[in-house]
Aldo/keto reductase
Amino acid sequence: METRKLGATGPAVSAIGLGCMGMSGMYGPSDRDEGIATIRAALDAGVTLLDTGDFYGMGHNELLIAEALKGVPRDSYQLSVKFGAQRDPAGAWLGFDGRPAAVKTSLAYTLNRLGVDHVDVYRSARLDPSVPIEETVGAIAEMVTAGYVRHIGLSEVGPETIRRAAAVHPIADLQIEYSLISRAVEEEVLPTLRELGVSMTAYGVLSRGLISGHWTKPDMAKGDFRAASPRFQGENADRNLALVEALRSVAEARGVTVAQIAIAWVLAQGTDIVPVIGARRRDRLAEALGALDVALMADDLAAIERAMPRDAAAGDRYPEHQMGMLDGGR
């Protein structure tokens, strides 16, 4: 497995990470046994970076990961954990809490659920507009000093916030959506990261399955949060699926799948970018890891750009109210 380093001071991790959110119901019902098997298969394949959030399934995801990691040496993998999202018993989103007390309380519960004595990268899921980023990062820095956290990350924030956070403590990486149809970060966010020596862990590289080559309309189970996503709605979905078909022609010419060429494109954007793949089944994981063997040449990249041009996507990546919660990459 190829490795990539998270920032100037962060850990070396597998070139592809495994995002575990979908194993806890965010895309409709999930299979617990298959989720555990997928995590273990990822570890066997050399994947070391596992990404989760304490609000994925309201703790379910962390407990699932803990079960999958039983007996696995702690120094053989890295845990990236997001915190701060507030949800009610029905699953509704209530905002974000970045207060220092919330940072430490959330971490205490996370360590207990995961059954570990530290997490490798800890980050607020979103910017809390009522709490200065310096206070949130400062609280995580205290947890670094105490040994409960190894490195500090950020999630979905813009250039100004990145700079302010980095002035408090070294930042390993920014987790933000980046894919062939989500490229807003290229304008200001990515240059800022590179100036400061901060890496990117890119999620949504298949746009939640939209550009995987597998999703069809309609194809959403009850409880699938994509049902509210503008890109999956009506004519937007039709226009986006037309882009996928154009990309499929490029992929087939190379003898690879749509998902593999989309992931390979993200991998090709720089060794400081680590795609986080949301596979929740072993077959999808195996397909995603096949992207590591896809070397894209200049002609390939040009063909991909023609098939799926920048800004060609129809619809925002989140509903309007959630877009309003973003600090960067809109």
About this structure: The chain is about 35% helix and 15% strand. The chain has a mean pLDDT of 93. The first strand starts at residue 3 and ends at 5.
